[in-house]
Amino acid sequence: MLTLLLKLLARCPLFLLHAAGSLAGVLVWLLDGNYRRRLADNLRQANLPDYTYLLADSISQHGKGALELLLAWGRPADAVSRLVRQCEGWQHVEAAIAAQQSILFVTPHLGGFDIAGRYVSSRLPYPLTAMYRPPKLKWLEPLMQAGRERDNGRTAPATAAGVRILMKALKSREATVILPDQAPGAGDGVWASFFGKPAYTMTLLPRLAHATHAAVLFFFAERLSWGRGYRVHIFPMQGSFDGDRQRDAETLNRNVEALIRLAPAQYLWSYNRYKQPAGAPPAQQVPA
């Protein structure tokens, strides 16, 4: 019954989902003190202009992002793709395909990241394999998996077996997608500056890029106002990975920061980005 209800909600017009999500974002902000403090503290830590305005907008954007996941998972792939009104940077994808180069797509928790993944998947001539972690709400996982494993979509768990799946896809000159701002497990990351504060940062993504010589493209779907849809942005990575874990982590975070600055209110500031994973060494001061 609940799954059916969620699928029905996914059919609602985007402007209604975003309106409901905006209200939900405000309610969660008012009711959950831990969430409220983490969102406000992480956004303040970023030291971006117009903090007060960004905070108010971010509260609304968090709710919109939560409800639009139902749309990304529940609607047919072509219907999701049609919500993208504009795509800037697709020529970088075409260049990699023409060069017979595998592609490592990178998108943080920014804007409609699942919408962006569905859109990119629909335009590729081969599968797009996405690494994922099971949601904390276990009943959501079948809905999420069904929504992502459609048409060209494939998934790989955030395990050693999942890494092998990603490596196989890249060596087959296909494409993968990774969220770079998830805190990795102990031993799978290093402390690197993220908006001026140490954040435990994954080393997997640079290792994959270095081992397979994949084209690394950063992208996200900017949420347009009033439920008008999305604008997808695609950028080649600035700098390069050289195999040094610390330098590669810093390069990764600088590219993620540059993407976030394009639509800072749409980043998931409530995510506990600065936590110390179990078994990881304590954070040390790192250069900003």
Give an overview in words:
This protein has a domain at 80-266. The protein is 47% helix and 18% strand. The protein has helices at residues 2-10, 14-31, 33-45, 51-74, 77-81, 90-98, 113-123, 141-148, 160-171, 204-212, 245-260; strands spanning 84-88, 103-106, 128-132, 153-157, 175-178, 189-194, 197-202, 215-223, 230-236. Helix 1 crosses helix 4.
User: How far is it from the N-terminal to the C-terminal residue, by CA?
Assistant: 49 Å
Radius of gyration: 18 Å
Low-confidence stretches: none
Overall 3D form: globular
As a percent range, the share of helical residues equals 40-55%
Count helical runs: 11
Round the mean pLDDT to the nearest integer and report it.
Answer: 89
The description of the largest β-sheet is: 7 strands, mixed
Order of helices and strands: HHHHHEHEHEHEHEEEHEEH
Strand fraction: 15-25%
- What's the β-strand tally? 9
Which strand order spans the largest sheet, edge to edge or round the barrel?
Answer: 1-9-8-2-5-3-4
Helix/strand-derived class? alpha/beta
Subcellular location: Cell inner membrane
InterPro entries: LipA_acyltrans
Protein name: Lysophospholipid acyltransferase family protein
Keywords: Acyltransferase, Cell inner membrane, Cell membrane, Membrane, Transferase
Would you kindly provide a brief summary of this structure?
The protein has 288 residues and is an alpha/beta fold. The protein contains eleven helices and nine strands. The strands form two sheets. The chain has a seven-stranded mixed beta sheet with strand order 1-9-8-2-5-3-4, with helices on both faces.
